[in-house]
Amino acid sequence: MTPLSAWLVLFLAGLCEVGWAVGLKYVEGFSRPLPSIITLVLMAASVLMLGWSLRVLPLGTAYAVWTGIGAVGTALLGMVLFGESREVARLVCIGLIVAGIVGLKLVTRD
């Protein structure tokens, strides 16, 4: 795996993390079969792809980026799908997470 493909796989893993985190809102204690299956598949795919990216990327950076993508994506979808707060302070904090993700990417040697 090349460094570029590792970053792409890590990004996709982060998107899967967003998917399963949002999915948890729909599974109702894992009592709804289809949302539960989709959520579990996304969980497995997310961790699997994180593991693949770790063949090339440093652990600390990859994990921080993975969780950062998950946190930002989940927070944004919470606002869009569930009417969660959009106050300025919250958006600034999300922006800081994005800045951290970008900063880690820029300073990481592949």
From TrEMBL:
<keyword id="KW-0813">Transport</keyword>
<dbReference type="GO" id="GO:0022857">
    <property type="term" value="F:transmembrane transporter activity"/>
</dbReference>
<comment type="similarity">
    <text>Belongs to the drug/metabolite transporter (DMT) superfamily. Small multidrug resistance (SMR) (TC 2.A.7.1) family. Gdx/SugE subfamily.</text>
</comment>
<keyword id="KW-1133">Transmembrane helix</keyword>
<dbReference type="GO" id="GO:1990961">
    <property type="term" value="P:xenobiotic detoxification by transmembrane export across the plasma membrane"/>
</dbReference>
<dbReference type="GO" id="GO:0005886">
    <property type="term" value="C:plasma membrane"/>
</dbReference>
<protein>
    <recommendedName>
        <fullName>Guanidinium exporter</fullName>
    </recommendedName>
</protein>
<dbReference type="Pfam" id="PF00893">
    <property type="entry name" value="Multi_Drug_Res"/>
</dbReference>
<keyword id="KW-1003">Cell membrane</keyword>
<keyword id="KW-0472">Membrane</keyword>
<dbReference type="InterPro" id="IPR045324">
    <property type="entry name" value="Small_multidrug_res"/>
</dbReference>
<keyword id="KW-0812">Transmembrane</keyword>
<dbReference type="InterPro" id="IPR000390">
    <property type="entry name" value="Small_drug/metabolite_transptr"/>
</dbReference>
<dbReference type="InterPro" id="IPR037185">
    <property type="entry name" value="EmrE-like"/>
</dbReference>
